[in-house]
Amino acid sequence: MDFIKRIDLKRNYEKYKNEYQAAFTKACELTSFSGGPCADEFDEEFASFCGVKYATGVNNGTSALQCAMLALGIGAGDEVIVPANTFIATAWGVTYCGATPVFVDCTPDTWEIDASKIEEKITDKTKAVIGVHLYGQPFDFGAVKKIADKYGIVVVEDCAQAHGALYEGRKVGSLGVMGCFSFYPGKNLFCFGEGGSVTSDNESYIDTINVLKNQGSRERYHHERVGYNMRLEGVNGAILSVGLSHLDEWTARRRELGRRYLEKITNPLITMQAHPDNTETVFHLFEITVEKRDEFIDYMKDNGIGCDKHYPVPCHLQEAYRSLGYREGDCPNAEYLAKHCVSLPMFPELTDEEQEYIIEKCNEFTP
């Protein structure tokens, strides 16, 4: 058996290359390169998929978060609560606006933001909470929203890893005031480069973002505010339309693979993420924890299996945020995950034979 990568995008391209190439040709023939009809068409399709009135494409998921913060009027002197266990871009979206991220620990079982830890971090400067549907698993939106409502602050969703995931029957991206998506290669829905989107039912927020991402302009060469060059490329809009047409199929396969891991990995040295009954994860990543992580990763590599670490340093302990004064022990669950979390191979084209082999090696692991 060949080496099994943690993710193998080449398999996806080989399977759908005729559709991808046709989409690329369409965008080129329309000369739809920066925004334009292919990007606009995808916006409409993605809004419908998420169950919201509006979606606006941007150049990446980090910009989606930044634009969402700007649309809310968040800036210098404001605070936004974010989970410590997430990719750093969640915090960047806050920092780029001049506001301060306030980090909150995750739960010990779902590994998502711990709603019970939010209230103690709220001050008169707090304007929003960004909840992250990490690894494809929705966070406890209801619990977070209840606290946010109590203090008159809003909830923004970071959906970068959770396209199509459900919370109490509703798609992520339709729960908070805005949903922020990434289409970075390797996401459940991805483009050929960088891309992102903001979803919302609030026309005013989307209108603001449409101006911000287009150099602060509605009319060419007339700039009503300081803006940015953050448009979704037309070629990637066309590529994303292809991916979106297959996303339900890809998600079904991810769920099949994820459930098989959950059922068949029985090694007591391995702990897996909890998935509450009122949610449906999309298994962007399949995460486990093991006490001897590096030994496990080396063991899997020696057996022809690639694994990754998501994420080895929690946000609050990153060098970039040293000035905020966080110390080891402030977010113990996130810190534990940073030292023990491992990502197993997970992508729709992973074969049953390959997965059975991965499961076999997981169950045979002994330090």
Write structural notes for this entry.
The protein has 367 residues and is an alpha/beta fold. It has 2 domains: 9-103 and 111-241, Aspartate Aminotransferase, domain 2; 247-364, Alpha-Beta Complex (Aspartate Aminotransferase, domain 1), CATH 3.90.1150. Helix content is 37%, strand content 16%. The chain contains 10 helices and 15 strands. The chain has helices at residues 9-29, 37-50, 61-71, 89-95, 141-151, 203-212, 234-264, 293-302, 332-340, 352-364; strands at 54-58, 79-83, 100-104, 126-132, 154-158, 166-167, 170-171, 178-182, 196-200, 217-219, 222-223, 271-272, 279-280, 286-289, 341-344. The strands form 4 sheets. The chain has a 7-stranded mixed beta sheet, with helices on both faces. Strands 7-6-13 form a 3-stranded antiparallel beta sheet, with no helix packed on it. Helix 1 (9-29) runs antiparallel to helix 7, helix 2 (37-50) packs parallel to helix 7 and helix 3 (61-71) crosses helix 6 (203-212).
List the helices and strands and how they pair.
Elements: H1 9-29, H2 37-50, E1 54-58, H3 61-71, E2 79-83, H4 89-95, E3 100-104, E4 126-132, H5 141-151, E5 154-158, E6 166-167, E7 170-171, E8 178-182, E9 196-200, H6 203-212, E10 217-219, E11 222-223, H7 234-264, E12 271-272, E13 279-280, E14 286-289, H8 293-302, H9 332-340, E15 341-344, H10 352-364
Parallel strand pairs: 2-3, 2-4, 4-5, 5-8
Antiparallel strand pairs: 1-9, 6-7, 6-13, 8-9, 10-11, 12-14, 14-15
